[in-house]
Amino acid sequence: MSKELVDHIYEMLEEVNDPELGIDIVNLGLIYEVDVDKGNNALIKMTMTSMGCPLAGEIVADLKNKVSKIEEINDIHVDIVWSPPWSKDRLSRYAKIALGVPN
């Protein structure tokens, strides 16, 4: 796995915003893991802020659209997980300030 390629994927993920909150999914702490296998397939483990997130499909579609712009990536697999559950503790400092969440 190329660290540079994983870093590039994270850069693209920072362009994927949660439409309800207007903050990218990396700063929201929704991305749990990014990996690239030997076939240059991106494997992304993520969660949503709630199990019933009505925009989950839209977020995943936007994620795939952004990451597919990386020429080296052949395929993208997104695994949505619920454990560990998302909490406000996963928010970056930037997201906490933007959302008015105390540190």
Automatic annotation (TrEMBL):
Pfam family, one: FeS_assembly_P
Superkingdom of this protein's organism: Bacteria
Coiled-coil features, chain-numbered ranges: none
InterPro entries membership: Fe-S_Maturation_MIP18, FSCA_dom_sf, MIP18-like
Residue ranges constituting the MIP18 family-like domain according to the UniProt record: 8-79
Name of the molecule in the record: Metal-sulfur cluster assembly factor
Source organism per UniProt: Halalkalibacter kiskunsagensis
Lineage: Bacteria, Bacillati, Bacillota, Bacilli, Bacillales
